[in-house]
């Protein structure tokens, strides 16, 4: 039981870190390594100064939906972890972690919705950027997709997990 508890806690922390990185980092769409776009900024690398110059992304309804859903996913996962820690110390023996699992499943569903919207509507989201055929999805986008099954899996584990002493 102790190993399962450590596994679930570690999985949750890994999920939370990956979600936070996917939401805040600057690589949802890349063009040849010198320009990229994320949920918040469009950035270009300047060879002269060796730095990144970033400007705010053009606002669109689809981009705002992705932003909100990814932030909600981080919030749901954070709440789930805090509730889990609280339930470890306050729940009676034999209790189930329903609320924790439900929050984690909601985090997975909101992340799924966000990456699905970005996948289907990236032309509208990146409308004023360079030609899309010259670019590809970045590592943060892929990281967000990896989070989806892990969040859903950990949510199901929480729902079936019983507290033992």
Automatic annotation (TrEMBL):
Record localization: Membrane
Keywords: Membrane, Signal, Transmembrane, Transmembrane helix
A Pfam short name: PMP22_Claudin
Protein's organism: Dicentrarchus labrax
PROSITE patterns reported in the protein's UniProt record: PMP22_1
Gene Ontology CC annotation, any one: plasma membrane
Protein name per the record: Epithelial membrane protein 3
Record's bilayer topology term: Multi-pass membrane protein
Signal sequence, start to end: 1-19
Source organism, top-level taxon: Eukaryota
